[in-house]
């Protein structure tokens, strides 16, 4: 039989270790997050439904996004043991400059809609962690203001082309003058994708005060207070416009974009040139022939063509086709540090994350973005050690394989 007794006070004392109270509400909230999925859960509670769904959703049936994430779930590493992995190097040269991690912040539109601190907060975190930050044409902070907020950050600019080339040329010149070293041309938006969550939520830019948003706002007063008491939400690089995202894309951007426009931008832009939205090996070769320094394998986060190719499955054939002529980058579905390493092992130079840091931004502003990078960085280090590799640069295709589709 088990004999029981009352514990002595001296035995209980070491067990009673209450955590110190954290006065900052954002920091207190973020302490519970151990993964990007946790940040997503917090973000869902902290922001109006239309705002969260804009970040979280994709086009039509959202099959492209689901398939991209399932591809990472199929990743199987082949670790080696009995290796000294007490020290790891997560640095990686990306387009001629070394970053502390093999990742960059992808361009995201309307960032101040997710949190009033917006693009400057994200850029400052990129500066802190020494990774590239990409400002979107559809951003809500000017090229110059982002540069001022993060003067030492490596800054890239993502460009859409108008039917009228004059505004695009002006943005290119402003980006060069403000110290941006890389131009990223998006080529997968001849028309806007059918983002059904946005349609069902009645999302407009700026958000409209309808009965539905008013009732939702009652559940998220902090978000509405911050939006209404800071600078009006609008596009920093577009003329003032109003409507749904799809309507604005169809009104403003050029559906007649061709390979000649890539060549035009190559002649116009003095820095590195990345073409974003490549979804076939043939197109990757075409844009590199036209002068691109890198291709970004991307289906726009699943937000344009549903049933699009899965970027991760394109990495190896694209790397084989391009060789040393250009670097291969990847986005869509990256939610874990192991996802980044899988793409790098297959041949990608780096991965770009968008939703991952936006979940952090919605969950806790700048602190949330910092938390997102801290989580990804820890996952990268831990996964390297468990694979038995000391450096990101030492990853090879032999370290990873994709399990058969079920």
Automatic annotation (TrEMBL):
Q: Name one GO molecular function term.
A: FMN binding
| One of the Pfam families matching this protein, by short name | FMN_dh
Active site residues of this protein: 300
Arranged from A to Z, the UniProt key words for this protein are: Flavoprotein, FMN, Oxidoreductase
Superkingdom of origin organism: Bacteria
Q: Where does glyoxylate bind?
A: 54, 160, 195, 300, 303
**SUPFAM superfamilies per the record?**
FMN-linked oxidoreductases
Required cofactor names: FMN
Residues in domain FMN hydroxy acid dehydrogenase? 28-405
Binding-site residues for FMN, renumbered to this chain = 107-109, 136, 158, 186, 276, 298, 354-355
Q: Which family does it belong to?
A: Belongs to the FMN-dependent alpha-hydroxy acid dehydrogenase family.
**Name of the protein described by the UniProt record:** L-lactate dehydrogenase (Cytochrome)
| Species for this entry | Pseudonocardia cypriaca
